[in-house]
Specification:
The protein has about 110 residues and is mainly alpha-helical. Helices cover about 45% and strands about 0% of the residues. The radius of gyration is 16 Å and the shape is flat. The termini are close together. It binds zinc ion. The site of zinc ion has 7 residues, from α1.
């Protein structure tokens, strides 16, 4: 998690190596995702998927490298108004570091 790796789009158009209208956009989606945390990545991919409509999850899975189930889960969470999703931390309470420590933002290691 320390290094920021940017996923390379695996959609057929990008894989073909040919220039196409969405190449830059696909790269920028992955660029943005590389700076987001886990749940934010899921929700962003879910939003993009919704724009595409039917089959969007599959396309977004190719572009982002996220699993289709992950994207579907993101859509479900958005549909539920992110109910139960913590607003200020990546993981649900109980997961991750034990409580008690002062919550400070981890410095981004680049
Ligand atoms: Zn692509």
């Amino acid at each position: 998690m320390a290094d920021v790796t940017i996923h390379v789009c695996q959609c057929p158009n990008c894989r073909s190596g040919q220039e196409h209208g969405d190449r830059k956009r696909h790269h920028q989606i992955n660029l943005l995702l590389s700076r987001l945390d886990e749940q934010q990545r899921r929700w962003f991919a879910a939003l993009e998927s919704q724009k595409l409509g039917y089959g969007g999850d599959t396309v977004l899975a190719l572009i982002t490298g996220l699993h289709v189930d992950t994207i579907r889960r993101g859509r479900e969470e958005l549909d539920a108004d992110l109910a139960g999703r913590p607003a200020d931390r990546v993981r649900n309470p109980g997961a991750g570091r034990p409580p008690g420590k002062k919550k400070s933002r981890r410095p981004l290691r680049i």
